[in-house]
Amino acid sequence: MCGIVAYLGHRKAHEVVIKGLKRLEYRGYDSAGIALLNNGLNIYKKKGKVSDLEATLKEEELNSHIGIGHTRWATHGEPNDVNAHPHYSATESLAIIHNGIIENYSSLKQELINKGYTFRSDTDSEVLIQFIEDIQINNDCTIDEAVRLALTKVVGAYAIVVMSKNDPDTLIAARKGSPLVVGIGKDEFFLASDATPIVEYTNEVVYLNDYEIAIINKNELQLKNTEDIPSTPYIQTLDLELEAIEKGGYEHFMLKEIFEQPKSIMDCMRGRLNANSGRLVLGGIREYANKLINADRIIIVACGTSWHAGLVAEYFIEEFCRIPVEVEYASEFRYRNPVINEGDVVIAISQSGETADTLAAMELAKSKGAIIFGVCNVVGSSIARASHEGAYTHAGPEIGVASTKAFTAQLTVLNMIALRVAHKKGTITESRYRELLVELETIPSKVEKALKLDDQIKEISEVFKDARNFLYLGRGYNFPVALEGALKLKEISYIHAEGYPAAEMKHGPIALIDEEMPVVCIATRDSSYDKIVSNVQEVKARKGKIIAVVTEGDALIPQMADYVIEVPKTDEALMPMVSVIPLQLLSYHIAVMRNCNVDQPRNLAKSVTVE
């Protein structure tokens, strides 16, 4: 969840680290800090954003070729200067930055207190660095050996970087359950939670594996695991451009990413889909393709927006593949004893590929013999590596905390997987298959057309920016879109919102409707259109303020709705990729008008790598 950056080389370390922290601030922004070796081991940290930290550093002498930095999303201990990272060891000869949770920190802390140690902060991270130093002193060992021995006693998840006053040309890094990547430059090394702080300097990286420790000095990178077994670094080439992680003239990353969707959807299909020839190829699904085609049941595990994409996929897969589908919150799935049988397949969905609950759900399913297919965006991520097979969305970096282009990219990939399976199984006619391929290819242009509604949606947003509650209604394929629209509004504007199947409104939520309640009805032309018309009438009869998302040319619902947003016509099964666009824009503009921090909403972080 937190952001980690570290540097060792010939540049000014604080400049590299601060710039990197700004790029990782979407991972956490409760507090920030850096540690440098400049006339001793010095830590500078501050509650608030990286800019707050930067302001306090202007008068400091910061010359150093080695440094570590951290931007925090609080878990143990409230956000304040003291709990900010990095943390000193007892003698202040070591410093640590940490992403994750040390589950047995309490017992380790008590053991250290019994030895006479005291603690400055409330964090589990300080316990870890004190524990590492205690081991180093008692065993008279090197810092990398002390880290290795400490990690054999640690329970939980971590990505850590440790620096030592007594080893001024060395960084020690390790990971388990939290991402960490090493960038390799010319006589310099970079460490970060993801590649965004690294791409400016090098395109050669090593993704650390679980239980792996990196020993970095000026001349080399060495890897070993917690059992002290060395390994050879596997160097990969980054497929990431610097422009992709800049705002590109947009006010916010979220707005940029909303408007990138025509391109990101096209990038998902590029090289995979050719409607003219009826060609649909997913190169990442080969060896286990028959497992998917012959699955008795598909279980989709995901969190947040990815869970909503899974709900849409449930409709699509069941309709065209005729395979039963269950969509599970990964956080619930992992803590019960799910029934997984031979012939079941699990699809794990995650934008970052690092979502802790989804990873744990995958491991549980694998332990019961399931085949895992991953759908994620980040190459080299933990979910990609833990899956048997899968497909990348190729949507490009998503920096805004509220996920937008990831949703439509995930739907693109999931739809292609389903169409491939249905065609192979023969559960879809050739004509219907070709029809959907052709329609899928048109989705980027239809999304582009929907984006042209931005000015109209901005005007509607002005009307409802001070609302205290919203209700979102949809049926069939558009029900998960209602959930997603409500989530977007909650995340970034802090307005309470709920999404419901439209028919369920009569079973409770209708009691909330009055003249003060905005109700967003996703009412596009589909097989349940007549039913959604009835639901709109029910809202209107109770004086609810209706914002209707309809298909272009609809003449009926506009007569009842207070505000109408017309989206291009497409196949019912693909409509969520179009109907969600106005809801993304609505949430964005309302949040901006409420002076909310759109890209960094309170209490949230982009990648939930802790439980």
Task: Please characterize this protein's 3D structure.
- The structure is a single chain.
- The chain is of the alpha/beta class and 611 residues long.
- It has 3 domains: 3-243, 4-Layer Sandwich (Glutamine Phosphoribosylpyrophosphate, subunit 1, domain 1), CATH 3.60.20.10; 250-450, Glucose-6-phosphate isomerase like protein, domain 1 (Rossmann fold), CATH 3.40.50.10490; 452-611, 3-Layer(aba) Sandwich (Rossmann fold).
- It contains 18 helices and 27 strands.
- An 8-stranded antiparallel β-sheet has the order 3-2-4-1-10-9-11-15, with helices on one face. Strands 5-6-7-8-12-13-14 form a 7-stranded antiparallel β-sheet.
- Strand 2 (31-37) and strand 3 (41-47) form a beta hairpin.
Short description:
It is built from 18 helices and 27 strands. The chain has 611 residues and is an alpha/beta fold.
**CATH T-level fold name of the largest domain:** Glutamine Phosphoribosylpyrophosphate, subunit 1, domain 1
Please state the structural category. Answer: alpha/beta
Shape designation: globular
Distance N terminus to C terminus? 10 Å
Average pLDDT, to the nearest integer? 91
Please state the CA-atom Rg, rounded to the nearest Å.
25 Å
User: What fraction strand?
Assistant: 15-25%
- Domain count: the total is 3
Contiguous helical run count:
18
- Specify the helix fraction band: 25-40%
Tally of DSSP β-strands: 27
